[in-house]
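Problem 12. The chain below contains 501 residues. Write out its predicted structure in token notation.
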Amino acid sequence: MPVTSKPDARPPRPQVEDPRLSRADVAGREHNPQEALRHFRELLDRQQLEENLVSRQHSQRQDLVESLVARQQASELTRNIARLHPADIAFILEGLPLDQRSRLWHLVPPELDGAVLLEASDAVRETLIADMDRGEIMDAARQLDSDDIADLVPHLPSDLVPELLSSLSREDRDQVQSVLSFPEGSVGALMDFDMVTVRQDNRIEVVLRYLRRRGRLPQNTNKLMVVDEAGTLTGVLFFESLLIHDTERLVSEVMDTDPVYFRTDDDAHDAALAFERYGLVAAPVVNAHRQLVGRLSAEAVLEDVVESAQQDLLSQVGLTGDQDLFSSIWEAARSRWLWLAINLMTAFAASRVIGIFEGSIEKVVALAALMPIIASIGGNTGNQAVALTIRGLALDQIDGRNARYLILKELGVSLANGALWGSVMGVLTWLLYGDVHLGMVMTVAMVLNMLLAALVGISIPLGLGALGRDPAMGSSIILTFVTDAGGFFIFLGLASLVLGV
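Solution.
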């Protein structure tokens, strides 16, 4: 056959819709998951109230009444949940307490289980899988494409994985194992295999005829991959070229021979930057020999970027891994022990700095009122430096050649801001307490602490990045300790020297 393509292993993810819904209703649900979550919360609360009322009644047919009520409630929930997109179902499950989540999860149509598991966060996915038996897990996994199964495998019971892999076709099994072989954060771990390829010696007419017979194209497809007999990528054919050129022309005459493509071992973060820079919808992925092995879609890139951004946000306050908002008290408490212990030690160290100058504080009570200002302005300055540095690292705008310039630039900014606002605060302190020397101490302390905060705010993410760790990990906790302890020491030390207390 002159036109080659990756065969579709299975139909697209099913979506069950209530035929009674109008187009506006469906669109509203899809674009307002918060409203859907509120609706299901109210529905579950109302049904719980109904169950309580029925259980309090005493009649000869109590069991029958309770059974009928439970069946009616289940039918109503199933009817409502089946018309939603799997991503919206996952969003709703993530927003429910564990008991309500379990109840609703058991009512999700089986044909949607796999897609919902794929859309749920890692922490919530584990609670859903724990609520399923082996048969349900196997059925849910078989609904997915091979690259999606690879995403699900790390979260499945280890003894179930061999059975699942053996139940797949040889091609699907090889693809799953191929994706699993790539490290997390690489393009190979994000790519999928659902793509259409053509040969460069085909005429456009042949390509169009094949596409019509094929009937369905992969999502996020705006181009066809062009390969030679050995499967080597030679270019891409945009749909626009198919439509505007004469059908008798060859693919080789109208294709883009210099496309943006990625290798399987490329960094996923770099790929995301390329997608944003070039406005890509999808891009081919090749191996070391430039043979086409898959494609990277904007959907996969966006999911990875969002997940990384959420993790960075949690890392700044010392939370690692995915977090289930409604996890048990024990699990939530245990996940926070490490950084709470670190925070406790840093806070104790800061308190000891204050303890060194207890005598000075007793003699000049105003020092106690002014200390929080020094710590606060330093923390704000440091957080600004941290945010800018993390953003620069994420965009690959910072390396060893310009890091020194960035440090000097941020120190200059902090010096300018410290001189301005330190002078303002120094004058206010002088007017408020009538002591010009105390005002001078306030000014100098603010300048020095803002310089310290800027230096530390840049150094933390740069240092973590150099060590191969997440630049945002614990940055907020470390910065707070330095600006508090350093600010207190600078302010109280200057006060002791200048005021003679």
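Discussion. Residues 23-181 form a domain with the MgtE N-terminal fold fold (CATH 1.25.60.10). Students who got a different answer should revisit the alignment rule from Section 12.3.
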